[in-house]
Write a structure and sequence with these properties.
Length: 380
C-alpha cells in the first residue's frame, strides 16, 4: 500500500525519506496470466526511471514473482526474488506488534502515558509526554513533531551532506531531543500527522519495559517464531546482507540530479522508525501471520485494526496501530504499510483474511509510483 499522497515524509524519510510461504516452482507458470497487469505495472516503473523492481504475490494459486530492470547499474545483474532490501517504515508494524504483545501480557497498557515509561523525554516547546498515550504514538495522533521535518536533520540526512554523514551513528534519544526543539503539530488526539518520532519513542518504550533493545524483542517475538530468516534489525551495521542488489538515490535533488550508490549507510538514522531489512517472501509471511491472528490475541488485533482518518485529501486510507487500510479503485481493501529509505521504496499489503498478499521494492527513490503495482495486483 502506498502512502505517497498522505505521507510524503514517510516516503522521503523512513519513509524515513520517500512500503511467505515457499511455493512450488510451477506456481509462477500457473499464475503468470493472472498477474500480467502487475508485471506491466513494474515494467512501467522501470520505464519511468527506476533502476529495478521486485514484486512477489501470493494467492490461492501459489506464489508469483515479477522482476524488471537491474539490481546493479554497473554490472547489469538482474533483480532476484530472494534479494534483501531496506524496508524503511515497514519496520513500524513490527514495532507496533511488539507493543501490543506486551499489552496482552499485562506489562503495559496502550492508554499509559509516554511520561510513565519515558519520564522527561517528551518535553519542550509545548510537548508534554504526560498528555500523550502510547496509543496516540502508534496511530500518529500524538502531535509529536516529526524528526525528519527538522531542517538541520534533513540537510545532513537527505541532502548532499548525506555523503559526508552516511556512516554517522544516531541515537533515538538524540533524535527525539531534536524534535523537542520544535512546537508539536497539534494537541494530542485532535488531529493526525505521520511522525517518525512516534516510533522512535515506541522503540524506547519497548526497551524500558523489557530491558532489551527493541530489535532483540522483534527477533525473539516475531522473526524467530515465524522463521523470517531474511529479516534483520541491523543496528549499527552499515552493510547489506547477501543476496542483495544496490540502492540508488539522487539525494532528493530533482529528477536530473546525479545518481549516487547509497547501499551502505548507517541504519541508526531510522532506528525503530525504519531501519529493518527483509525480502519479499518474509514480508508476506509476516503480514499474513499478522492478519490471521498468529501474532496477536483477538483483543489486541481489534485494537491494531481500529483506524483513524489521515486527512480529507486521502479519503480512502485510514491508519491503525502500525498498519494502514486502503480501499482500492475496485473496492477491495488491503492492509499493510509502505516504507522508504535512501535508495529503497517498499510495500507490503494483504487482504484482511490474509489470503492474497503482495510485497514489492524499487531500488531508486526518485521515480515511479508503486501504488500502480498494488492496484494492478488486486484490481487488474
Amino acid at each position: 500500500m502506498s502512502v505517497r499522497k498522505a505521507l510524503p515524509a514517510a516516503v522521503v524519510a523512513a519513509a524515513l525519506a520517500a512500503t511467505a510461504f515457499t511455493a512450488p516452482a510451477t506456481a509462477g507458470e500457473r499464475t503468470g496470466d493472472r498477474h500480467r497487469a502487475t508485471q506491466t505495472a513494474i515494467d512501467d516503473l522501470v520505464r519511468a526511471g527506476v533502476p529495478g523492481v521486485l514484486a512477489q504475490a501470493q494467492d490461492r494459486d501459489g506464489t508469483w514473482n515479477g522482476t524488471a530492470g537491474v539490481a546493479d547499474r554497473t554490472t547489469g545483474r538482474p533483480r532476484l526474488p530472494q534479494d534483501r532490501y531496506r524496508i524503511g517504515s515497514i519496520t513500524k508494524p513490527f514495532v507496533a506488534t511488539v507493543l501490543l504483545q506486551l499489552q496482552a501480557e499485562g506489562r503495559l497498557d496502550l492508554d499509559d502515558t509516554v511520561e510513565r515509561w519515558l519520564p522527561g523525554v517528551v518535553r519542550g516547546h509545548g510537548h508534554d509526554g504526560r498528555s500523550i498515550t502510547l496509543r496516540q504514538v502508534l496511530n500518529h495522533t500524538s502531535g509529536v513533531y516529526d524528526i525528519t521535518s527538522d531542517p538541520g536533520f534533513r540537510e545532513k540526512v537527505f541532502g548532499p551532506d548525506f555523503l559526508q554523514h552516511r556512516y554517522d551513528t544516531w541515537t533515538p534519544r538524540q533524535m527525539v531531543a531534536i524534535a523537542m526543539t520544535h512546537r508539536p503539530d497539534f494537541a494530542p488526539g485532535t488531529d493526525w500527522n505521520y511522525s517518525n518520532t512516534n516510533y522512535l519513542l515506541a522503540g524506547m518504550v519497548i526497551e524500558k519495559v523489557t530491558g532489551r533493545p527493541y530489535g532483540k524483542e522483534v527477533e525473539r517475538r516475531i522473526l524467530r517464531p515465524l522463521k523470517l530468516r531474511a529479516t534483520s534489525v541491523p543496528g549499527t551495521d552499515v552493510t547489506m546482507p547477501k543476496p542483495s542488489g544496490r540502492a540508488y538515490s539522487r539525494l532528493f535533488a530533482g529528477p536530473d540530479a546525479e545518481i549516487h550508490d547509497v547501499t551502505e549507510m548507517s541504519p541508526t538514522v531510522a532506528g525503530s522508525a525504519g531501519e529493518m531489512i527483509s525480502n519479499s517472501a518474509d514480508l508476506q509471511r509476516f503480514v499474513r501471520a499478522l492478519m490471521t491472528g498468529k501474532l496477536l490475541p483477538p483483543r489486541e488485533m481489534k485494537e491494531m485494526t481500529a483506524t483513524v482518518p489521515i486527512g480529507e485529501e486521502v479519503p480512502n486510507t485510514r491508519y491503525g496501530l502500525g498498519v494502514m487500510v486502503e480501499k482500492l479503485s475496485c473496492g477491495k481493501e488491503v492492509w499493510g504499510h509502505s516504507g522508504g529509505i535512501h535508495g529503497s521504496g517498499s510495500g507490503m499489503v494483504a487482504t484482511r483474511d490474509g489470503q492474497h498478499s503482495l510485497a514489492l521494492n524499487v531500488n531508486g527513490d526518485w521515480a515511479g509510483d508503486t501504488q500502480q503495482v498494488v492496484e494492478a495486483e488486486f484490481c487488474g
